[in-house]
Specification:
With about 850 residues, this protein is of the alpha/beta class. It has four domains: about 300 residues, FAD/NAD(P)-binding domain (3-Layer(bba) Sandwich), CATH 3.50.50.60; about 150 residues, Flavocytochrome C3, Chain A, domain 1, CATH 3.90.700; about 80 residues, no CATH class; about 220 residues, Fumarate Reductase Cytochrome B subunit (Up-down Bundle), CATH 1.20.950. Helix content is about 45%, strand content about 10%. It contains 27 helices and 20 strands. Strands 1, 2, 5, 6, 7, 8, 17 and 18 form an eight-stranded mixed beta sheet that branches. Strands 9, 11, 12, 13, 14 and 15 form a six-stranded mixed beta sheet that branches. A two-stranded antiparallel sheet has the order 3-4. A hairpin with a 5-residue loop joins strand 17 and strand 18. The longest helix has 29 residues. It is globular, with a radius of gyration of 32 Å.
Length: about 850
């Protein structure tokens, strides 16, 4: 966000800008960026608060683009002529606008990529086959994050919580160069903006149930609004009532059937209901009203939305038997279940007699009787007779956006009902969907309309505005209103919270291109405890998914996947042996006892003349602590830790068995490469991890490499020292330029540098996706490793002084504490993660073989 720019009081001083864009969704962002690239000063305002910025684009995943040849994100080719044929098929009303849409879509993908938007490559194997649409990596939230970064970087002035009400009637008529006057409600009160040109991209009125009911009947009050709660369309409705030409049918919009238990606003893709062909759909009277198997292709979602919306009472229930429930795809909520139809009817408040009569019709037909009054098409082996246990999903219509809006000309100017255009007033996106789409819809086309006509409107508005600077100088919005601390421990069991969160992710499916966790999760619909453990360790905690998630807190769904998986890892580490709330504290006590206990034991057991004398040359360490004590203690500690960890990782491997795998030397090499390069932190192909502010850079990966490879070098130093002792009869301490000392010194310095880098990054990152228990585990692990490295380097530096004895005991105590806490601490995550990556490599190979 941009900082405050001056003391002007917006409530008293009219604010001036070149291009004012009203509505900061996808169309508004495209218009603002294009206008700014054309040289105009641009102000972009939106009624939503900062955490809901982006409008309905947050709930999108793909965009329809015409193209003549295959690209990394679209298969084969989809020429302009095919796009035009598809538009004609749905009854697009204006051939000229259709032609503009199809033709200008050909370079829209490249333009978006130039603004920083990342598309998911189809070669990764996670996407449905498509030649018509390209999919955004991370979904719609990642799309709007990228465009906001670009707009802010270009100097677009962005304001949140600014709501436009009725417009000045003169705004429709200004053709003499006079600025357009816009009255705006802002958090500080009210103000007026004077703009050379205005672009309306504030969407339709899908959240205004009263307006919908006025057009569609009382049942519209029961519609769910799948999009942003701020799509209320005040400027659009004012235009429609004050002389703008209309396009589309009043109240018309993109409807689907949704689970009636989801939030009434902003539930997006996960609210969508499916599986009608697997059971029967009944109303509150328990009677069927439509053929459940009539439409089973991709159009089934919108088909059922319109069927439900056409009922006087849009409430309905999908009633399923055991076979139907088993065949359901991942859904946001589990079905309501009961042992009998009567019990199910009571729970769902369906008329029991009506439901019993409906089921009896099917029983009579199955016994050779007449067909049901409403035919029931069978498809895909859907059962005609439902069997216990019975289940139901409550349904209602869900509206994504309205298509009813204003008509525009080829330059995106608003047309007037009396003829002509409003010369300084432009529209794009849902505000003018009806002009392009009529009453039809093609998947991915909503964003295409917003992008194509948003860019046209931005360029045309910039031509009118020129390059006069903006005089808006009030404080911009920020993320400060959101919590900045780590997520609290879940109120429910961490395993159940991880299962809930990943079920939402599986139902959504937008993030398959972010990292390996999401495609692996979609292969595990059951999400067993073993599945959750595997996915938790496959996660590298980069937290990109949190910033790219439209359901992250403060959304009602409160999806915080990084925190949920971190809690699962904390559960893995403690192994039901240590208390859930204080596992790290217990480990810290064990470590502290070792760290302090060995020096205390040395003070009590080692003669002072040996402990506090300066020793030099081979064998000086053993003059303080005998070699047998050192070797025996290390063998018992590390041997026991290794045995416990080996058993635990074997159990982890067994529990994580999921989809088919195909292991080979190649998959083993892939897993080893992923471990060594930390590919899921951006170490391999792809754009890597990002936040709202952009790519996070390689700092965390480099710091991890320094710490991990430093630890490895220190371990190799121990091995080299043991080899010298046993095979070459050379006794420690070794010369400064010997291999054990060189490896140990380099390893210790690398560990401290890596740990310092991780700590510095921790102080800078957004802590909201973090989990408190894992933060505690991280602090303990960093501290224990730092003590090991620092005490080892101090011992090297002062090994020929009187301090050597206590430093040796301190260093050995730190190493002993590290060994004893290893099987139950975060340091063990390397073993679990390596196994998770190995299994995932095998699963990828099996999937690739199936596709081939």
């Amino acid at each position: 966000m941009r900082p405050p720019q001056g003391p002007a009081d917006p409530r008293r001083t009219p604010l001036r800008t070149g291009v004012l864009v009203v509505g900061a969704g996808f169309a508004g962002l495209c218009a603002a960026i294009e206008a700014r690239l054309s040289g105009a000063s641009v102000t972009l305002i939106d009624a939503a608060p900062v955490h809901l910025r982006g409008g309905n684009a947050r709930h999108s995943r793909n965009i329809r683009l015409a193209h003549d040849s295959e690209s990394p994100w679209q298969r084969e080719h989809y020429p302009v002529a095919d796009f035009l044929d598809d538009l004609a098929r749905i009854g697009a009303p204006d051939p000229a606008l259709s032609a503009m849409l199809a033709k200008n879509s050909t370079d829209l993908g490249r333009w978006l990529a130039a603004q920083g938007v990342v598309f998911e490559p189809w070669a990764d194997g996670n996407l449905p086959w498509s030649r018509r649409t390209a999919f955004f990596r991370g979904g719609g939230q990642a799309l709007v994050n990228a465009l906001y970064r670009r707009a802010e970087g270009l100097g677009v002035d962005i304001r949140y919580g600014w709501r436009v009400g009725p417009l000045d009637p003169e705004s429709l008529l200004h053709g003499d160069g006079a600025p357009v006057r816009i009255d705006v409600e802002i958090p500080e009160g009210a103000t007026t903006i004077m703009a050379a040109a205005v672009v309306l991209t504030c969407g339709g009125y899908g959240a205004d149930r009263d307006r919908l009911a006025a057009h569609l009947g009382r049942g519209a009050h029961g519609f769910a609004n799948r999009g942003t709660p701020f799509q209320r369309g005040e400027p659009l409705l004012w235009l429609l009532d004050n002389g703008a030409a209309r396009a589309g049918r009043p109240g018309d919009g993109h409807l689907v059937a949704v689970d009636a238990r989801t939030p009434t606003d902003d539930a997006g893709i996960v609210s969508r209901a499916d599986g009608m062909h697997l059971g029967i759909v009944v109303d509150a009277s328990g009677r069927r009203f439509h053929d459940e198997g009539a439409v089973t292709g991709p159009a089934r979602y919108s088909h059922w939305g319109h069927v439900l919306a056409g009922q006087d009472d849009p409430r309905a229930w999908l009633v399923l038997g055991a076979d139907g429930v088993a065949a359901l795809p991942p859904m946001i909520y589990p079905p309501i279940t009961a042992d009998s139809p009567e019990a199910l009817a009571r729970v769902c408040k369906i008329d029991p007699a009506g439901l019993a009569a409906t089921l009896s019709e099917f029983e009579r037909h199955r016994a050779g009787g007449p067909l049901p009054a409403i035919p029931r098409s069978l498809s895909g082996g859907a059962p005609l007779l439902l069997s216990a246990p019975f289940a139901a999903l409550p349904l209602c219509p869900g509206l994504g956006f309205t298509r009813h809006g204003v008509a525009v000309d080829a330059e995106a100017r608003v047309r007037l009902a009396a003829g002509g255009v409003a010369p300084r007033l432009f529209a794009a996106g849902a505000t003018m969907f009806g002009a392009v789409l009529g009453e039809g819809y093609l998947s991915g086309t909503a964003l295409t309309v917003g992008g194509v006509f948003g860019r046209i409107a931005g360029r045309q508005a910039a031509d009118l505005a020129g390059t006069a600077p903006s005089r808006i100088s009030v404080a911009a919005g920020s993320w400060k209103g959101l919590p900045d601390g780590p997520a609290a421990a879940p109120a429910i069991d961490p395993v159940e919270e991880a299962r809930r969160t990943l079920n939402i992710c599986n139902t959504c499916g937008f993030c398959t291109g972010l990292c390996d966790v999401f495609p692996a999760a979609r292969l595990r619909a059951a999400l067993t405890d073993g599945d959750l453990r595997h996915l938790a360790h496959l996660c590298h905690d980069c937290r990109s998914c949190h910033d790219d998630c439209q359901y992250a807190p403060p959304h009602d769904f409160a999806v915080n996947l990084p925190a949920a998986l971190a809690e699962m890892r904390a559960e893995e580490y403690r192994a039901s042996v240590l208390p859930r709330g204080s596992a790290t504290a217990w480990l810290a006590v064990v470590y502290a006892l070792c760290l302090v206990g060995l020096p205390v034991a040395a003070l009590l057991l080692v003669p002072p003349q040996a402990l506090f004398s300066a020793h030099a040359g081979p064998g000086s360490f053993y003059a303080v602590i005998p070699h047998g004590v050192m070797a025996g203690g290390a063998g018992l500690a590390f041997g026991g830790a290794a045995l416990i960890l080996a058993v635990r990782t074997w159990l982890f491997w067994r529990a994580g068995r999921g989809p088919d795998t195909r292991h080979s030397p190649r998959t083993l090499a892939r897993a080893i490469s992923d471990v060594l390069t930390l590919r899921n932190l951006g170490g391999g192909k792809g754009p890597g991890c990002e936040t709202r502010e952009g790519p996070v850079g390689p700092t965390r990966r480099w710091a991890h490499h320094l710490m991990a490879y430093g630890f490895g070098l220190s371990f190799l130093a121990t091995i080299a020292g043991a080899a010298k002792h046993h095979f070459f009869e050379q006794v420690a301490p070794y010369p400064v330029f010997s291999l054990p000392v060189a490896l140990g010194a380099l390893g210790g310095v690398a560990m401290l540098a890596g740990l310092a880098g991780l700590e510095a990054r921790r102080l800078q990152v957004d802590r909201r996706p973090a989990a408190r228990r894992m933060e505690s585990a991280d602090r303990f692990t960093r501290a224990s490793l730092a003590i090991v490295a620092a005490s080892g380097l101090a011992l090297l530096a002062f090994r020929e002084t009187a301090a050597m004895g206590l430093l040796l005991a301190l260093h050995l105590g730190s190493v002993l504490g590290l060994a004893l806490t290893l099987p139950f601490g975060k340091l063990s995550h390397g073993a679990y993660r390596a196994l998770a990556l190995l299994r995932h490599a095998g699963e990828r190979a099996a999937r690739a073989a199936t596709r081939d």
